[in-house]
Amino acid sequence: MxxxxxxxxxxxxxGIKWARDGGDMLAAWVADMDFLPAPVAIEAVRGVAERxxxxxxxxxxxxxxxxxxxxxxxxxxxxxDVGRLRLFADVLHPxxxxxxxxxEPGDGIVLLTPIYPPFIHAAEHGGRRLIDCRLDLDGWRLxxxxxxxxxxxxxxxxxxCNPHNPTGRVFDRSELEAIAEVAERHDLLILSxxxxxxxxxxxxxxxxxxxxxxxxAARTVTISAASKSFNLAGLRTAIAHVGHQGVAxxxxxxxxxALGGLSTPGLExxxxxxxxxxxxxxxxxxxxxxxxxxLARRLARDLPAVGFQLPEATYLNWLDxxxxxxxxxxxxxxxxxxxxxxxxxxxxxxxxxxVRLNVATSRExxxxxxxxxxxxxxxATRAATT
Length: 386
Prior knowledge:
single chain; Aspartate Aminotransferase, domain 1; 2 domains; alpha/beta; four-stranded antiparallel sheet; Aspartate Aminotransferase, domain 2; seven-stranded mixed sheet
């Protein structure tokens, strides 16, 4: 299952994860897997190429909405209204568009921080205001009273990521109900990025925001893609269920080509994954859970001062390096020792002193990453005492 996660292949790739730094750097930053994509996706793209079938793809476009609805029903108990599904180039596409069309300069957008960096950019774009609602440090839970206190008379939307990036938290029904109740009380749009919903660790269940209540469904735009689960980010294919009628009307009123178009290889690969990819995905989940647990054991043994709470989903791990005394940007030290991690500061002011580590690689490479981090900390400790 970890085919492709060897250093010779990875250092030959042109994607940003490994090509950005090159050399001897070990890349554990951007949210791509090191494995080969799902074989069914590779076969789908190969078939497009071998047929020379690069024309407009009505076949996949017409099938994907129903196929994704089937997938959601099988895995998460939600049957989306196919008539409300729209295809986009990636998950940020409908988020940016919805905020642009539904809000005005000066309007507030609530984020549950720390949060995926492009959400911060989306919330601040065009003079909108980022409203910071920090998750609890202990368990990364949402505090309903804190959320309510964040709202002002110019708040227009709540932008959520569930499962959550970077913490790996999966919000439970009570937390999602709190979001839905605040949104109903203040007439807010809910944008729910659920792209990580298929990468759950054992014992965790994902509840789509649209299933919380009919009222929540009617004010939510739910966004997803096969890209994280099946390692297809560069194929640029996503889907959104536009439950909010105002946003749906705004999308439909746009010129027909303003929403852009999707590539045939991306559409065919996505269709293949959502119809034939479940066995591969099951193996991936087992490996990612084993990687998460191995990281936890290594940290407890070799870097016990690092704060770490087991993520419930994703292959991302949010590490508190503040107890190490490495300053607000510990990634700088780790880079000096050949490890590229995501800086916590990219995820908002609450991320200072934190790093995000991607474990979607082989066990051998993960151990090399941890070994280098341990050496970096030991070096800094020696320097501080001499």
